[in-house]
């Protein structure tokens, strides 16, 4: 059995303008991580050369999806010995900017359930970022909620945790102002 709109007064046009399907202007974010965190934003916040960046986008479209831009800039981290008879070591560290756990159908209640403040006392509220944001000092990342979109963001470009926190917060604000 076939149905047709022809002859009943309904349009058979599919709403094309300039050969493109019209986007719903009420949807703030497409769901594509690449639309939210771009190489340009990552490079702008870190001041690293975008030509030197590498991109890793794992588990695209799946629950554990993650988008990461990273640079091998020769930064070293000092690792303290875990036992008394071992030496402290130097390790190379990769500078990175990453986003994960993006939910474009979030509400405040689901966001707060996801971050679970009772189970994670290391979370500290960050004012002025989205509708609600929390810094995780243990994992060095930022949990953000803004107008129905939640995400986890991290900038790791320094051995100074305060610098990483400052850059992560600045990137979240930039993403919200430019992309959401």
UniProtKB/TrEMBL annotation:
This is Uncharacterized protein. It comes from Gelidibacter salicanalis.
């Amino acid at each position: 059995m076939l149905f047709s709109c022809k002859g009943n007064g309904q349009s058979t046009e599919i709403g094309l303008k300039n050969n493109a399907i019209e986007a719903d202007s009420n949807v703030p974010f497409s769901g594509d991580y690449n639309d939210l965190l771009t190489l340009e934003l990552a490079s702008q916040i870190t001041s690293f050369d975008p030509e030197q960046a590498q991109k890793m986008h794992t588990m695209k479209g799946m629950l554990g999806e993650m988008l990461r831009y990273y640079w091998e800039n020769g930064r070293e981290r000092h690792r303290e010995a875990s036992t008394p008879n071992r030496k402290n070591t130097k390790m190379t560290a990769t500078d990175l900017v990453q986003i994960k756990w993006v939910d474009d159908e979030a509400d405040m209640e689901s966001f707060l359930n996801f971050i679970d403040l009772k189970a994670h006392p290391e979370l500290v509220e960050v004012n002025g970022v989205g509708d609600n944001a929390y810094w995780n000092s243990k994992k060095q990342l930022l949990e953000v909620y803004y107008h129905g979109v939640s995400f986890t963001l991290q900038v790791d470009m320094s051995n100074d945790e305060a610098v990483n926190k400052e850059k992560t917060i600045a990137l979240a604000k930039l993403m919200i102002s430019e992309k959401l």
